Amino acid sequence: MGRKFLVGGNWKCNGTIEEVKKILTTLNEAEAPSEDVVEVVVSPPFVFLSMVKSLLRNDFSIAAQNCWARKGGAFTGEVSAEMLVNLGIPWVILGHSERRLLLNESNEFVGDKTAYALSQGLKVIACVGETLEQRESGSTLAVVAAQTKAIAERASFWSNIALAYEPVWAIGTGKVATPLQVHSELRKWLHDNIGDEVAASTRIIYGGSVNGANCKELAAQPDVDGFLVGGASLKPEFIDIIKSATVKESA
Ligand SMILES: O=C(CO)COP(=O)(O)O
């Protein structure tokens, strides 16, 4: 199937120039498994993208945390997919729950953004996930299916999409969704609604309180193809999380 383990570090709205330099030193000096085993994608805030691009080791890649849904122009405060491509940024994270919930990004809007970013040649980490209320009311699968469907209806191909399942109640809370049943349900959804090939090849990564202590156990779960890490991606333990990719190798 060849789904290479993907570890994303979402720095969110954090960092100063000094802190970014420190994180980069840690990343650059770390011993990491080879690029054949793990794909590492670091996602700093927009203002640090150029700096990270010039200082980060070559075997790690970079993602922006958002981009505009259409061609750039008179959209004050937005950053276009074209700009990211021009800057040499290969990835973008779209549909993070913090944007869905705090900035009212709808499923349709996230789908539009994903389709446009793909059309410009960007690779997309598309985030889906339910709130605690939705989980408790038993609608987890319906919620993540609707989020995924809005992407599927707009995206013309899946080879440059990784899905990140990030239950809102697990983000920054220390709570982890385990066992990760939703991953196999999402893969089944891809199988039933898009096809075999996409279901077999799309990476479904997990986000929500992943840290150096729990990463190995999570990595070992079937259908978990990597992580999207928040808080721990700012700390040296991010290296341990990257190394957990080797769990898959020995599986
Ligand atoms: O939102 C996340 C990554 O995008 C997860 O955040 P935490 O790892 O801090 O829970």
From TrEMBL:
Keywords (A to Z) from UniProt: Isomerase
Pfam family, one: TIM
GO molecular function: triose-phosphate isomerase activity
CDD domains per record: TIM
Highest taxon, organism lineage: Eukaryota
Gene Ontology CC annotations of this record: cytosol
Biological-process GO terms, alphabetical: gluconeogenesis; glyceraldehyde-3-phosphate biosynthetic process; glycerol catabolic process; glycolytic process
The keyword Cytoplasm is assigned to this record: no
Subunit field text: Homodimer.
Name listed for the protein in its UniProt record: Triosephosphate isomerase, cytosolic
